[in-house]
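Section 5.1 Outputs to date
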Amino acid sequence: MSMIAAFYGGKSILITGATGFLGKVLIEKLCRTSPDLKVIYILVRPKAGHTLQQRVSQIINTKLFEKVREVCPNLHEKIRAISADLNQNDFAISKEDMQELLSCTNIIFHCAATVRFDDHLRHAVQLNVTATQQLLFMASQMPKLEAFIHISTAFSNCNLKHIDEVIYPCSVEPKKIIDSMEWWDDAIVDEIAPKLMGDWPNTYTYTKALGEMVVQQESGNLNIAIIRPSIVGATWQEPFPGWVDNLNGPNGMIVAAGRGFLRAIRASPLAVADLIPVDTVINLTLAVGWYTAVHRPKSTLIYHCTSGNLNPCNWGKMGCQVLSTFEKIPFEKAFRRPHADFTANTITVHYWNAVSHRAPAMIYDIYLWLTGRKPRMTKLMNRLLRTISMLEYFINRSWEWSTYNTEMLMSELSPEDQRIFNFDVRQLNWLEYIENYVLGVKKYLLKEDMAGIPEAKQHLRRLRNIYYLFNTVFFLIAWRLLIARSQIARNVWFFIVSFCYKFLSYFRASSTLKA
């Protein structure tokens, strides 16, 4: 019998960020392993033309929840949507709903956050810092609350090389920043943001660090734990391999490379790609929720959910496996033959960006314009290159995260719980995982039919032949122009031709003598 699954039975659970990638997988796992839980409250922002129940249906009537609908037929009744907006004071929750949350909630999983690297500092502070502060205030008024689990990021302290399971202070107190945001206008925020962030590369990592400080300072008597996942990727095992539903991080890079848009990346091939499957993160999260509520640690424990220190895989190896998978499982409607160069040379990448990315996009847009369609490829390419540039910080560096608390928790689990709530990344086969990842992007994100693979392979062969033909023609034309203008080039050309002729003559003569 699973102790963790039994623990969540009969519980009322509040999840923020339930409509996001992590939130959906968390709901699925909870309902599948603990179908007798009482209720899951999810905070949902109102959306024009959609009722709260319709928003819930959009989440659970998907491929992800296929197995859950068999185990828990009354799934709709288990999920209670609460109208809320994390950008507003008190989350704009009605008095009746607030009273129900305060009086009934047993466990809080705080997954909500803005994960945009280029988000405006004011908005990032509101969602990642102020909303965390307000949720902690709500939690302090919940008499039945047993645990508060805060999902942060392993990159909240990416300005450090080695990161321990502790909360590191920021130079400015989060309370001062929260207060200042109320009277600073956008011009002041834009001016002061780089000074506040210092060594942090973007507003996301900086505000997640501030959010951790808020948790530490305002935890009071609450049982709190913090989980720091690294780059969250597609599912490894549960509920099935390869599920993904967004273009964030590696997903967008896989789509861009598979469609032939992405040709060069400024990355260190030997840097560790600290990718972690989303189901691994959720298994750890549920185990931490159980441990925090049952064992009630005296201090706030931090759990690193990373792969680099236990089962490392570098970007070069991962990139080769992705390209190898494209050969077996090509994407439909590829713009060019999938190919990617990893280089640390900024000049090389800028050259490729100009020649190999933007030029074909502009040519394709001219074709769209001439055929009466709206040009869109250049805009799409610029957006892609901007996204890649924001990821360069993370694909050119490696970090070391200590995992003592994570390993301690693993040792506390029964063999049954270690099987059901597996977060041991040492068991992860990277080659198999990456292949399932690419397949998942094709099936679940791009919605491509697997029956179209033979046609896609044929299209890929055509693109490869066109690529080789274009390069050959380009080389011959360039060489012909060079010969016409340079005596040295002509001499080199005649030497090569003469050498090849003599070699073939020698080879033919040797073959005749042997016969």
